[in-house]
Amino acid sequence: MGLAQLSAARFAACLEDPGHRAGDAAEPHELGAAAFPLRPVAFLCHYVRRRPVIHLAAVASVLGAAAFACIAQYGLKLIVDAMARGPQHIAAVWWALAVFGALLAGESILWRSGSWLGYRAILADKAEAKLDLFNHLSGHSSRYFSDRMGGSLANRISAAGDSLQQIFSTLLFNIAPVCADFCAALAMLATVDWHLVAALFAFVLLAAGTLVRLSRRGMPRHRLYTDHAADLGGELTDVLSNMWVVKAFSARTREHSRFERLLKVEESSHRDSLMYVERMRVLHDLALWLMAGGMLGWTLHLWSVGRVSPGDVVLTLAMAFRILHGSRDLAFALVNASQFIARIADSIQAIGENHRVVDQPGAGQLIPLGGSIAFEDIDFSYPGGKPVFRGFTLQIAPGEHVALVGPSGAGKSTLISLLQRLVDVDEGRVLIDDQDIRAMRQDSLRAAIAVVPQEISLFHRSVLENIRYARPEASDEDVLAAARAARCDDFIRALPQGYGTIVGERGTKLSGGQRQRIGIARALLKNAPIIVLDEATSALDSASEVEIQHALEVLMRGRTVLAIAHRLSTVAKFDRVIVLGDGRIVEDGPPAELRRRRGAFDQMCRLQENKIVALAS
């Protein structure tokens, strides 16, 4: 099978073979599996199959343009042969010239059509690939993001989309034309001498096979470079997002040295990848010159014995140099494509892992009935870690305000994560209003829970957009009302552009207390039946804390509240305090009653009170 036929067969397989679509991806019915294949070739075919007509039309146009360009060389042969017959055959010369001009015009029209169709399809594929990767990435659990750098993941999405564009462009504009040139050259050289056809066919098959084998051997080098490049981007993003820490600890020199070391590793792997490519190119160039020289020498020999015309020599010369340059372009294209495929493989394998927390088939919507919470005999362990909960049970009534206290590692944050289904229990059930949270859609579950974390995350957007993020359909007046209730309207209006002020990445333009109040305003706007607080006043000064306590009273009124408390004085008005220790309930009851018992909670309170007295003195 020739190179052109091989490429056409693979392209057709992308369109026709449904099994090829999945590749090494998880079975379609497997929960949490990516919607895209996990093999790079199948990944590419996945997007070709989405718009096959425009892809086929683009390929047909480019192949037609390349064929016209080759056939135009035959028109050049006709011109030379007609001129060799003398001036008396000027009509034949003009006729051959007209054919030559028409072929060139057809080539130009087909090239422009192929480019227009190709870029429309390729850019749409690129956007959809990035969107699919982002969609799957955003469905991963919190644990997944804790184990990876955000900058590295962002780089992988960009690299996959850009590599897809490069591969499709290479296939369409570099590989497909060479395949057409090869087929057309075989047809035209057959009119000169069959030895030329046999030699060219054998050479291309040998060269293509060798290049494919060498490209596969070079894949580990390209993949290693891709890994290092992604890690470097992630490290850079990590440092830039924590620049205040770098400055606070006078670490610029240290970070410069660290970045320099990472750059050297990335540079070394990149150089290794490029040098392997260059070695392939040198071997290919030597083989090409031998092939072209042999073809031309043989044709000149045939002309010297009168077996071919001067036009045949010109045709062979044109075809030899066209195949020479085209084959070099093909070699470069194949090598570059192997590098881009390595980047896609790295991206889809890193991002395409199965989701650990998934919606079950037929998952429904949460039906709010008051906001009761129940943890029923739950077991939970983090991967590779010791058990956090074993047979843990806790009931929280609708509208009840419950505080979780205890030492670090007691399970407070894990319990909150289980309630939001950021992770799933190993055994047992978590219920909201007597509904198993695993039987409902995650978005439906989280719509019923408003969270005010200890560290407020804000987008690099305006204050108005950050507050409205909780309820996108909210009116400006609703946003302003939430801001006033959270006691942040005054400082927002004092900002340079008021509610239109951009807060900076992660809200760096605002103080910790200001970010905390915006977080509370966001929770107020959400108006959810369940409130989760993770020490929501920890970042506030004393004056602000008083204001926020009033705002929190409004936020908590009539709602179920589950709060992680480190300042034990903030839970004095709660209905219950749950003291956790080693994943079990040590004490449970109203805060005043627990103080009277002189147990674990009272000891914690006394310890904090003594610290305050010591600091005051």
Walkthrough of the structure:
The protein contains 20 helices and ten strands. It folds into three domains: 3-351, ABC transporter type 1, transmembrane domain (ABC transporter transmembrane region fold); 389-448 and 529-617, Rossmann fold (3-Layer(aba) Sandwich), CATH 3.40.50.300; 455-527, Rossmann fold, CATH 3.40.50. The strands form two sheets. A six-stranded mixed sheet has the order 6-7-8-3-9-10, sandwiched between helices. A four-stranded antiparallel sheet has the order 2-1-4-5, covered by helices on one side. Residues 1-13 and 15-29 have low confidence and may be disordered. Helix 18 links the parallel strand 7 and strand 8 (560-564). With 617 residues, the chain is α/β, with parallel strands linked by helices. It has helices at residues 3-16, 18-22, 40-48, 52-84, 90-138, 142-146, 150-189, 194-241, 243-248, 252-304, 310-351, 412-420, 442-447, 463-468, 476-485, 489-493, 512-526, 542-556, 591-597, 600-616, and strands at residues 373-381, 387-396, 401-405, 427-432, 435-436, 449-452, 530-534, 560-564, 576-581, 584-589.
What's the gist of this structure?
With 617 residues, the protein is α/β, with parallel strands linked by helices.
